Amino acid sequence: MTHTYHITGMTCAGCQFKVQHLLSQVPGVTDVNINLEKGTGDVTMDHHINTADLKSALADYPKYALTEAETKHHTSAASSFTNEEEKKSFVQTYKPVLLIFAYITGLSILITATNGGNWMTGMRIFMGGFFLIFSFFKMLDISSFADSYAMYDIVAKKLRAWGYIYVFVELGLGIAYAINFAPFVTNLITLVVMVISIIGVLQSVFNKRAIKCACLGSVFNLPMSTITIIEDGLMIAMSAVMLVLLA
Question: Measured between alpha carbons, how far is 183 from 189 in angstroms, rounded to an integer?
């Protein structure tokens, strides 16, 4: 069963992560989905849990106040990120990501065309540009990225420091692709890192959790969706292809 509660005092992604983590520790709670914009939390439990027990979980942080809202019995969480996002078209919502992909793709094609049509070089440039640009936006506010990333990544959930480390891993991979450093090792690391990353993304999208995608850090307010799966899946596929060709 899933119950919805009003939660006040949350002002940022860090608050969202903290409340979700605290409520997740309550015995019997199987899933917690916090909607920062609406100030609500959907708590899924395997048996009825008194509201007082949930409040006790937040007792050490008095700025967070939990009260009962409506009770819902459903198999999925909120189906939209915000009311505003519902009104936006796909292009409007994901315009930043689409523009980034268009720029990187265009640059890769130009470089490939001027290097004898070597599509391996084109893929390398695309992957380098992808990691450099995405790491740049995360660098603008690493702390907020780490908080958002911990909401869904399977490693960051258990080790928040991974959110900080991940930014520099992306930066390192971007540089490695740009200078063609140790291609086999670079692609192998990319494959492993992106496979781990996509697991949390798949879980969030398939469970229809209304959370923010951390792919562009805290600069753009993008909802988690299938486009995030496509991003990670594309990098996995390209690194796998390059590994096969380099083997």
Answer: 10
Please give the model's pTM, rounded to 2 decimal places.
Answer: 0.72
Of the candidates 73, 59, 61, 51, which has an alpha carbon nearest to the alpha carbon of residue 6?
A: 51
Based on the domain organization, do 57 and 90 belong to the same domain?
no
The answer to whether 32 and 20 are in contact (CB under 8 A) is: yes
CATH of the domain at 32: 3.30.70.100
Do 46 and 95 sit in the same domain of this protein?
Answer: no
Alpha-carbon dihedral of residues 167, 168, 171, 176, nearest 10 degrees?
A: -140
Q: Are residues 96 and 66 in the same domain?
A: no
Q: Is residue 207 a contact partner of residue 2, using CB atoms and an 8 Å limit?
A: no
Query: Distance (Å, rounded) from C-alpha 115 to C-alpha 217?
Result: 33
Asked, for residue 160, whether it belongs to a domain, the answer is yes
Weakest mean pLDDT among 65-69, 101-105, 186-190: 65-69
Claim to verify: residue 90 and residue 192 sit in the same structural domain: yes
- Closest Cα partner for 210 from 37, 22, 46? 37
**Of the candidates 194, 215, 14, 12, the residue with the CA atom closest to the CA atom of residue 98:** 215
